[in-house]
Amino acid sequence: MSLALAARSATNQRIAATFARRALAPRFARGAADTAYVPGGPVYKGTVNDPTTFPPPNKTHGSYHWAFERLLSAGLVPLTVAAFATSGSNYAMLDGILGVSLVMHSHIGFDALLVDYLHPRKFPLLGPVLTWTLRATTVGVLVGVYQFNTQDIGLTELIAKVWHA
Amino acid sequence: MMITRAVGLGVAVRRSALNPQAARALVFRNATPKRFIQIQSLSPSAEQQILNSQRLKRPSSPHFTIYQPQLTWIGSIANRVTGVGLSVLLYGYALAYLVAPGTFDSTHVIEFVAGLPDAVKYAGKAILAAPFAFHSWNGLRHLSWDMGKFLTLKGAYQSGYAVLGLTAATTVGLLMM
Asked: Would you say B167 and B137 are in contact if contact means Cβ atoms under 8 Å apart?
């Protein structure tokens, strides 16, 4: 009876508590980072349970890209109206800016398709291949549009003439 | 007790309780299987291959094919389809002109279009004007969402119907030009 009382006395409890705490504390010297102790068991890295990695955040691919895309889309409206109102041959510069803006808008749209349906995370070979194919195609299209606008009548003029052909 | 009755072993349990010798035979009959199964051990990668080939053959419940058509998602995919269609036309023509400027220059294109029958001309204009009109008006709807307008269900439906109406009007207007 007195033994139990002695065991449950305040000082003995405090001593026992410190020993228990030290025993349960994670041993940093023993475990490496990948087998760190967390309640529920050690966490092993390198298995199928690893969380997915994210690319480092970059405003060029994030908020700046978003803002650029919206400004471009909004700008296309007055550009198209102006280009068709004035007639392409008289204002070749306007025609050129419209052509480049249209191609950029289309490129961003195609890129969105690839990101949505053929993301490199799921398609490790096809995704990047098509991304670079798209970039090369866009470069070719820009060259073609430039050639057409300089050596021929220009995009707005073509559409206007075909419409009334 | 209830479990043995539900599983269907009630009769067997009762018989084994009353007749101990029958119990031994029953236990052995349930313990040793009638058929012998061949077990073949595989490496983990071979196991994973079998599992993956089984997973590929598994059916999945319909999800995409049974979603009720709604203005929201039909409008969204229509925006994408019209954008892609017009862009493919632009890219295709630019590349064709780059590759073969003699065949695809403006004079040839205008001549070709002028030689088509009137009905084909009107059909062609409609096929070009409608996607362009829809994509443009829906694009403005998207931009207004980006500015925080029409972000309720009612707003989405009202703006969606407005876009459809404007598309029809614009297409007719462009056809008459």
From this structure: yes
How far apart are the CA of B83 and the nearest CA of chain A, in angstroms?
8
Q: Which domain holds residue B166?
A: 72-86+117-175
Tens digit of each residue's pLDDT (9 = 90 or more) over B2-43: 665 666 666 767 776 776 665 555 555 555 657 788 888 889
ipTM of the complex model: 0.72
Is B118 in the A-facing interface, judged by CB distances under 8 Å? no
In contact, A88 and A157? CB cutoff 8 Å = yes
Nearest to B95 by CA among A145, A30, A159: A145
Residues of each annotated binding site of A for heme b: 105
| pTM score of the predicted model | 0.72
Please give the angle made by the CA atoms of A38, A42 and A53, to the nearest 5 degrees.
Answer: 90
Indicate yes or no: CB of A141 within 8 angstroms of CB of B91. yes
A69 to chain B: which residues are within 8 Å by CB? none
What is the number of structural domains in chain B?
A: 1
- Chain B hits for A110, Cβ within 8 Å: 84, 87
Chain A residue whose CA is closest to B126 = A163
Residue B143 lies in a domain: yes
pLDDT digits (tens, 9 = 90+) for A43-72: 778 887 788 888 899 988 889 999 999 999
d(Cα B79, Cα B127) in Å, to the nearest integer?
15
User: Which residues of B fall within a CB distance of 8 Å from A80?
Assistant: 136
CATH 1.20.1300.10: which residues of chain A? 63-164
CATH, range A63-164: 1.20.1300.10
